[in-house]
Design goal:
Layout: E1 2-10, E2 21-29, H1 34-40, E3 43-45, H2 67-77, E4 90-92, E5 98-100, E6 104-106, E7 121-123, H3 131-140, E8 163-169, H4 175-183, E9 188-190, H5 204-215, E10 231-237, H6 238-242, H7 246-256, E11 258-264, H8 268-284, H9 298-305, H10 316-333, E12 339-343, H11 344-349, H12 353-360, H13 387-394
Parallel strand pairs: 8-10, 8-11, 9-10, 11-12
Antiparallel strand pairs: 1-2, 1-7, 3-6, 4-5
């Protein structure tokens, strides 16, 4: 459990002597529900506290409000309560006195602040923060950004915060299906495999320029929503320049506040079958002379699944191990980055995993849908021509479980 205390001291007014009032605000959250309770509760405290003007004192209309006060009113006017995941703001004036401000926002807000003013507030106690708790909270809360695109103006959406993410995966691991699910969310824009063309990843400089275009909202394709998108990202395969430049990419992600979503398959043998079948169809074009990596009907799926690849059993174990090591290496490097790890099998078997993804991205829960249809259904033995050889090769190895049905 995390317990936060904000102690506020209301000064005596000049006109009337009043006893100092001490207000104690305690916010109690569990680690798991911290983000969601802040973002979606009907009324929450913005981890900052403000002194209300007493009933006897009314706002002097002649006094020009401070820029900070104006900014707060603007935020309230536009009902940006879903944007604030909590922060504390301490401002020091010329007298050296510390001011601490707060905003309380409700789901059903009908008017702006017109009868309040900020009073001088003194912090009674400023305990040393627990760095461990702060680090855990920062890992839970996605970073908010306010991009300024070069190619267009965000207009009224300029104050709409954006969260950055990247889907890190390997081919034929369900990333295409997963991305269509994300893009069915009204607030998510995921821009596909932006590093598929080799010229965008020929060196670290071209990679950084491409990343900047995506996260500055200057990237346009069918996955782009509009200037008010609340979460923006793309999918990146490990073999598209990512493994070669892991250190620089991790530094970039940490600097820009990009959250990583890893998506892999537990059963790497099933992934290999899908990869071999897809590679074959690039040339064969089984669907009326057209190659399709993803299909949207059972008829198309059945046509593609008729092809049975022959697996090279001589290199099978080493091939599986190589993919496994790349996955482990990537996850290890991104350990310092805000990330979550997903497996395709879990997403297929448990739809609630998608709720975890939306919570991780700091977005309101929605039902996510996709038109894509799975191609290879059923036991792997139905889709491999030399299945007996594969069984003999993997029996007694660490990969023997891949021979069994996984979902």
């Amino acid at each position: 459990m995390f317990l936060f205390h904000v102690i506020v001291f209301h000064e005596k007014t000049r006109k009337k002597k009043r006893k100092a009032q001490i207000s104690l605000y305690s916010i109690l959250h569990t680690h798991k529900d911290f983000t969601s309770s802040l973002a979606f509760s009907s009324s929450f405290l913005w981890l900052v506290s403000a002194a209300e003007n007493t009933r006897e004192n009314k706002m002097d209309s002649s006094n020009e409000p401070s820029s900070f006060s104006s900014a707060l009113r603007i935020y309230m006017d536009f009902n940006l309560f879903l944007s604030f995941l909590g922060c504390v703001s301490f401002c020091e004036n010329s007298n050296g006195r510390v001011h601490l401000f707060a905003l309380q926002v409700c789901l059903k807000q009908t008017s702006t602040v017109s009868n309040h003013k900020f009073q001088s507030i003194q912090v009674i106690e400023n305990p040393t923060p627990d760095t461990n708790i702060i680090q855990k909270l920062e890992a839970q809360i996605p970073t908010l950004h306010y991009p300024k695109p070069k190619t267009f103006s965000r207009g009224e959406c300029a104050q709409t915060p954006v969260r950055f993410f990247a889907i890190l995966s390997i081919q034929r691991s369900g990333s295409g299906w997963f991305e269509t699910l994300l893009n069915s969310h009204i607030n998510i824009s995921s821009n596909g495999e932006v590093f598929s063309p080799s010229d965008r990843r020929k060196n670290i400089s071209s990679i950084m320029k491409t990343l900047d275009r995506v996260y500055n909202l200057d990237w346009f394709n069918s996955g782009s929503k509009n200037e008010c998108s609340a979460s923006v990202g793309f999918k990146w395969m490990l073999n598209q320049g990512l493994i070669e430049h892991l250190k620089q990419v991790v530094e970039y992600f940490n600097h820009r506040g990009v959250s990583a979503v890893f998506l892999f398959r537990r059963n790497l043998l099933r992934r290999m079958v899908s990869l071999l079948a897809n590679t074959y169809d690039r040339n064969a074009k089984l669907l009326n002379g057209t190659h399709k990596s993803h299909v949207h009907s059972q008829e198309e799926a059945a046509a593609l699944s008729r092809y049975k690849p022959i697996i090279n059993t001589t290199t099978l174990v080493s091939d599986l191990k190589e993919v496994e090591m790349d996955v482990v290496k990537a996850i290890k490097y991104f350990n310092s980055t805000r990330h979550m790890l997903l497996y395709y099998e879990d997403l297929v078997a448990n739809n609630t995993k998608l709720n975890d993804v939306q919570e991780f991205l700091g977005l309101p829960q929605m039902e996510l849908t996709s038109r894509q249809v799975k191609i290879h259904k059923g036991p792997l033995s139905d889709f491999v021509k030399n299945w007996d050889d594969v069984v003999n090769t993997l029996n007694g190895t660490r990969y023997q479980s891949f021979l069994e049905a996984d979902y």
